[in-house]
Design brief:
By secondary structure, the protein is mainly α. Helices cover 80% and strands 2% of the residues. 33% of the residues are buried.
Length: 303
Amino acid sequence: KTAQLDPSTFFSLLFGSERFVPWTGELHMAQHMDHFSKTLTEETEDSEVDPEKLGKRVKRRQHRREVLCAVHIRDKTERFVYGRDEEGFAEQMRLEAHDLAKAQFGPELLAALGEIYQLRAEIYLANELNGRFSLAKRMASLKHNVSLAQHGWHFYSSAAGSLLRAKRVYSAANSAQALAKKREADSASGGGAGSDEVDEETAKIVESALDDALPTFLHTAWSYVVRDIDSTMKNVGRKFLQDKSVPWQIRVRRAQALRRLGQVFVETSQAEGAHQTDRSMTSAAEEAKAKLQEAMIGAMKEK
């Protein structure tokens, strides 16, 4: 048996553990890595990966993800929609949100979900109650577009920072390699340090560069997760709110329930300190390394 890293488990542990899976589904990043690794395993003889085949698999998996998330929200909001117990529903969701907040990046995920829930609900309600071309609908759509633009800007700026950090790590690795060769040459001539000392010193150089880069890499990955949640929940909202199998009145109540759910998630995330100086992304390298190590250990499985 050999220990292997499960990409899906790795990313779910890193960004929210399994507690958030019913709400967010399997992260897009994990889907791509999982499909890519499976495709490589299946096509080792040909040594070729069919991008079209990989794309179709990911698309089917993403559609299933959206349907499951919509069904989960439908079940969770029944108390509000059919039972008309708005206070009981809010209290129930508040208790669940507090439990979710204990997960890795829990408050941040609650904030991301809560914001997109409210935006999608407001757009639907404005469209249905005020009209397609009403000012309320335009303002709701504008608010949604501004939020998406901000998340996109954060991702691309963070990605640019990650590229610079990656370049520094690469340069540090090259410098360490050159130093190791020089020390080995000196050692061979009888005037340098031993190979063990050389290996330890070069390892420290590379490790230091990685420690500096890890928070930036983690921030980029988180920004990608936020964009993934935005696009996925947009389609989830459509499936949930535009379900023609239920009357119009039920769809409106679903939107009201979704808006209330979003408010509860955002309130809980703020109470748990989700926006305190972005502590989960810009903290010291040791914290970032600990998160990655914890996720990697949890994702290792025996096959």
